[in-house]
Task: inverse folding
């Protein structure tokens, strides 16, 4: 029979373990770990401890090793878990990100979870987790404005100055010169989505004219 590592307790450690076993506020799992160490200190092997406590021998071996490594404090902490093995490879994650940000599905304006899942061969929820982890949101589309007017900066200064410092006894009004005109086509390219920012497209070409402000 394989002999487990021996445990020798100091007087202070034995008293602390015994008090922890008797204390009502001690969690059951911690009290069981203390008992395992106390039995181990009396020379019992892991299999013998397991039989006495109606537990698996691997549990006795685990907490014997934890006590040898970390002392009494190690019994109060749960043992680290290995965790699940990732089922989605890094290559698949990179592929989903690239397709989301650089392409569009057929007959659609953007990818959905289901269309992306069918295209790459993973589940809808896996696609959602990848998008969430990389802060990708294919559905929202923000807008921005671009002006082609070479005198835009000068006009902007004039108009902003008019609002900030209007003439004395004057009323400053702003009139939208494109009322009820729907700009269906855009002369400026949109900006593709990236991490933390959705896809963006220009609303229209903004041109400022002093004739609209009086």
Result:
């Amino acid at each position: 029979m394989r002999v487990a590592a021996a445990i020798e307790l100091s007087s202070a450690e034995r008293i602390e373990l015994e008090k922890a076993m008797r204390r009502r506020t001690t969690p059951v799992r911690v009290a069981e770990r203390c008992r395992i160490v106390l039995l181990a200190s009396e020379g019992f092997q892991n299999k013998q401890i397991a039989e006495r406590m109606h537990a698996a021998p691997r549990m006795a071996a685990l907490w014997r090793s934890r006590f040898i490594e970390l002392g009494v404090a190690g019994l109060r902490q749960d043992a680290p878990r290995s965790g699940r093995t990732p089922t989605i490879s890094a290559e698949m994650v990179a592929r989903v990100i690239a397709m989301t940000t650089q392409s569009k599905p057929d007959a659609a304006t953007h990818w959905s979870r289901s269309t992306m899942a069918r295209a790459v061969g993973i589940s809808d929820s896996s696609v959602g987790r990848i998008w969430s982890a990389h802060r990708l949101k294919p559905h929202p589309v923000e807008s921005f404005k671009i002006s082609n007017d070479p005198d835009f900066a000068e006009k902007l200064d004039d108009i902003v100055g008019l609002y900030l410092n209007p003439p004395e006894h004057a009323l400053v009004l702003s009139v939208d010169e494109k009322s009820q005109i729907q700009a269906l086509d855009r002369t400026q390219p949109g900006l593709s989505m990236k991490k933390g920012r959705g896809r963006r497209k220009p609303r229209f070409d903004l041109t400022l004219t002093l004739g609209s402000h009086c």
